[in-house]
Specification:
single chain, mainly alpha, 10 helices, globular
């Protein structure tokens, strides 16, 4: 199971939402997530993400009717699944999917369409039936919706490019990933931006190696 879900640790997106759209509590979850994902030693990430998931759940439970806390709880759960692996990983990504679907029902355009980005990412990285719910057609539909809302964003372009690699479309993937590198810096997200750009460059190298 861990090998099937190993990509999830790299999957979870760094949203391009404006700072003012989030409450201070959600901003703190977002900042702590970036620090854990990109700066904490690997052996310390699971425990840190477990604690963060508890905090994120408390915030989302107290903020019913708001999409953003649900999205960030889903982000943390899916990151935890990718780091922890094992038999519990699939249950975590299923819960993340349910949270994202709840957020989609509340406000599908929230955080520049990050619901679409994250659902699309889950659908192409989680195994398909009978193990999981993975579905490449749904993945492409969601990722294209995300790009329609945020065509120049670092995250929708990164994940669409990564999806194209999984489909064997390496030249198209490189073009999309290079566009992701041109996304404007987010002044309030330096750790997330640096980490995402490193992931983009690694994805470009993977695609070039396949040509």
């Amino acid at each position: 199971m861990k090998s099937l879900l190993s990509g999830i640790a790299a999957f979870i997106f760094t949203t391009s939402v404006s700072f003012a759209a989030l409450t201070p509590e959600v901003i703190e979850i977002r900042s702590d997530w970036a620090r854990i994902k990109y700066q904490l030693p690997k052996e310390e990430r699971v425990a840190a993400l477990e604690a963060l998931a508890e905090r994120a759940h408390a915030i989302s439970s107290a903020a019913r009717g708001n999409a953003e806390p649900l999205i960030w709880e889903a982000i943390v759960l899916a990151s935890l699944a990718g780091e922890d692996g094992g038999l519990g990983a699939l249950s975590k990504v299923k819960q993340a999917k349910l949270l994202l679907e709840q957020a989609e029902n509340i406000d599908p355009d929230s955080m520049d369409g990050s619901v679409y980005t994250s659902l699309g990412s889950l659908y192409y990285q989680v195994p398909g039936w009978p193990i999981g719910f993975g579905d490449d057609k749904k993945a492409e539909q969601y990722l294209k919706k995300a790009l329609a809302l945020n065509p120049d964003g670092i995250d929708p372009n990164y994940f669409y490019g990564d999806f194209l690699i999984s489909q064997g479309k390496y030249r198209e993937a490189i073009s999309v990933l290079e566009k992701a590198l041109q996304a404007p810096a987010r002044v309030d997200r330096p750790i997330a931006d640096q980490g995402r750009r490193e992931e983009i460059m690694a994805a470009i190298e993977r695609a070039r190696a396949k040509l």
